[in-house]
Amino acid sequence: MKRVAKYFFRYWKIYFLGFMAMMISLILDMFNPQLNKIIIDDVILGGDLSIFKRTLLALIGITISRGILGYAKEMIFDVVSSKVVVNIRKDLFEHIQSLSFSFFDGINTGELMSRIKEDVDNIWKAVGFGIMLFLEQGLYFIVASIMLFTLNFKLALICLAFMPFIGFIALKLEKKIGEAYEKISDQGAVLNTTAQENIAGVRLVKAFGRERYEIEKFLKENEKNFNLNLEQASIWGKYNPRIEFLSNLVIVAVTTIGGFLVIKEDMSIGTLVAFSNYIFMLIWPMRMLGWLTNILAQAMASSKKLEKIFKEKPKITSPKNAIKPKKIKGHIVFDKVGLELNETKILEDISFEAKPGQTIGIMGSTGSGKSSIINLIGRYYDSTKGRILVDGIDVKNMDLKTLRKNLSVVMQDTFLFSDTIEENIKFGNMEATNEELIEAAKDSDVHSFVLKMPEGYKTVIGERGLGLSGGQKQRISIARALIKNSPILILDDATSALDMETEYQIQKAIERRKGITKIIIAHRISAVKNADEILILEGGKIVERGNHKTLLKKKGRYYDIYCQQFKGFKSVKEEVI
Which of 426, 457, 485 represents a domain boundary (last residue)? Predict the structure, then answer.
């Protein structure tokens, strides 16, 4: 909770105002039993009507004042708690955004959503009214205890004798309930992940007729969540009635012993009534202790989960005194680069050069390391051997924002936001003009199908491009990269869902953009045929390299791929000649 406390103390001045309103309200409340005592002993039993009016006005004044102060207190505490939660969510989201790709490789989206929503909400409950009530009830307990001793010392001692037992049970409850909520929080994240994955992949589930399997999988996780909540409820049911029993026992003891004292005329009836009122002020915090413990235990469990994420540090950051070149031309050099992840070799001895304006094509079987090369250029992962230079500067020495600002990447997994087509394209360059938007859309062959839509570029697409074909989604992602107009353009199997004619048109449009260094990863030869150099990868190594004609003459792996794709030896023979 230390991190939460830091957020909390940012607004301590405002919170102090709420605390003062609570204190004044509490002090005023302490006068009520004394005024009741006066009415009973002096007015009703004593017959002194002269003080009745003043006493009644005092009671009315206290009631009105406490109403106003109560409103101010609640308002201030709610405002402070809302500000705290807004800042926690903001910083948590910013922190998640700063983390490296490797962090997201080992965590589920559902778990992160659970942390951002449910765990932060638990902290809001604690900060919003849990802590406030804890302070208020604690003060009531202290002040009411003092008032009890002023009324009757012996009877007060009898009452307070029960309190250590109630406190002991409450501490046991806090420990047990805290452990239970940690389990519930973990299982809640698993449940969210299961639901998120199923909803995201609902079309696949329906296509394979696996609805029943997915329902049973969700029900299994839901049952675990149910059992953990039952465990929490059984803990609550075990300890809370004990607190209630002891609390009520105090009232019975006070009524019995106080009654004997009144009969013996050692205590007035008004004093016993006032004493009973103060007892309720003492008992109520004890009764609420279990409920407050419940809220604080939830918040403690949630804060631990959030702290675990906050402790994660980005593995890839800009170095101190990072180089920030004013302009990047796009000269890329791989110098004996190697990559090892989780003690597995991904790339080994990769060397090539791409001068500004040149195109490098990369081909190879699935898992050969093609995408890993582009991940190293943008420092999404760091190479474990060798150097990667951009304009003669090692990417590890370059400012990370500057490096990535000068890269336009079309990822293998096409992702579109639930927004308009215009906003999805402009995501690459939010300051782009409409003319630049149209140019990028035409070059990527987006313009042709967008004009057929009722709302054109203002058409809102569903989650991840729902309603668009695979080819349309790829074209929008290419437009998003082109509008950025970076000196380095990387296409990772970006045209796999396009027909040959559309792919050809886009290639020609990209080639017209002079001075851009292009790295194209593809499975189809048609996508890399015109590259200045083509690299063939197998097992993380370059096994062949050269341009299209050179590789055909070698009759190696590239030649075999060509034959498989074009099925015409005569055309191959003609190209070789």
Answer: 485
Select the highest-mean-pLDDT range: 97-101, 165-169, 543-547.
Answer: 543-547
Angle at which helix 153-161 crosses helix 211-263, to 10 degrees, equals 160
Other C-beta atoms closer than 10 Å to the C-beta of 235 total 20
For residues 149 and 146, what is the distance between their CA atoms, to the nearest angstrom?
5
Chain CA centroid to CA 467, Å: 28
Query: Beta strand pairing status for 517-521 and 488-492?
Result: parallel
Examine the domain organization and report whether 303 and 426 are in the same domain.
no
DSSP 323: B
Residues contacting 96, CB < 8 A, separation 6+: 112, 116, 309
The answer to whether residue 320 sits within a structural domain is no
Output the CA torsion sign for 103, 109, 111, 113.
Answer: positive
| End position of a domain, from candidates 310, 328, 363 | 310
State which amino acid sits at residue 516.
I
Whether residues 290 and 425 share a domain: the answer is: no
Does some domain include residue 387? no
Whole-angstrom distance, CA of residue 52 vs CA of residue 60: 12
Element (H, E) at 517: strand 517-521
CA–CA separation, 50 and 108 (whole Å): 74
Q: How many domains does the chain have?
A: 2
Global confidence as pTM: 0.75
Encoding tokens for residue 185?
């929080």
pLDDT digits (tens, 9 = 90+) for 407-433: 999 988 888 888 888 998 998 888 889
For residue 177, the domain's CATH number is 1.20.1560.10
In a shared domain, residues 430 and 296: no
State the virtual CA torsion across 377, 380, 384, 385 in degrees, nearest 10: 0
Is residue 136 domain-shared with residue 15, that is, in the same domain? yes
DSSP H or E run through 129: none
Structure tokens at 362: 């990369």
Measured N-to-C along each axis, helices 269-310 and 211-263 cross at an angle, to the nearest 10 degrees, of: 150
Average pLDDT over residues 45-60: 84
Considering the domain boundaries, does residue 180 fall inside one? yes
108-117 pLDDT, tens digit per residue, is: 777 888 888 8
Q: Looking at the domain assignment, is residue 257 inside a domain?
A: yes
- Supply the CATH number for residue 440's domain: 3.40.50.300
Output the DSSP codes for 342-400. Answer: TTEEEEEEEEEEE-TT-EEEEEESTTSSHHHHHHHHTTSS--SEEEEEETTEEGGGB-H
Helix (H) or strand (E) holding 488: strand 488-492
Domain hosting 450: range is 412-485
- How far is it, in rounded angstroms, from Cα 25 to Cα 73? 9
Do 202 and 84 lie in one domain? The reply is: yes
Q: Where do runs of H (alpha helix) occur along 385-524?
A: 400-405, 421-426, 434-443, 447-450, 470-482, 500-511
Same domain, 295 and 425: no
Does 136 share its domain with 255?
yes
Separation in Å, CA 508 to CA 442, 501, 504: 12, 11, 6
How far apart are the C-alpha atoms of 210 and 217, rounded to whole Å? Answer: 11
Q: Do 306 and 426 share a domain, yes or no?
A: no
Residue 346 to residue 24: CA distance in whole angstroms: 68
- What distance in Å separates the CA atoms of residue 531 and residue 479, rounded to the nearest whole number? 21
